[in-house]
Design a protein that fits this description.
Strand content: 5-15%
Radius of gyration: 18 Å
Number of strands: 2
Shape: elongated
Length: 92
């Protein structure tokens, strides 16, 4: 297996090769890469892949890793009925 086949984002099944391709196309932030290939948008919200991608950006672009801001983690949400919040009927 070559480097490019290493899975970086397990949630979205994104490989190191795909990340390097996005960087080669000019994307230099985690947000740009996230929008291009959904990396970091799975259930873990980038907790495992964001540091790996930041390291790859730093290495390929030549900037210190400390200068690459990590995205904010947003917890997953599920819709609920308003009645559940205000004490509606049981099992609503």
């Amino acid at each position: 297996m070559s480097d490019k086949d290493i899975i970086i984002c397990r949630c979205e099944d994104i490989t190191l090769g795909e990340i390097r391709k996005e960087i080669a196309q000019g994307k230099q932030t985690l947000e740009e890469i996230k929008r291009a290939c959904r990396c970091g948008m799975g259930p873990c919200q980038g907790r495992t892949c964001s540091p790996l991608i930041a390291n790859e950006i730093a290495r390929n672009v030549g900037i210190p890793i400390a200068d690459i801001p990590l995205p904010k983690v947003r917890p997953s949400t599920a819709p609920i009925k308003m009645a559940s919040l205000i004490g509606g009927k049981e099992h609503d």
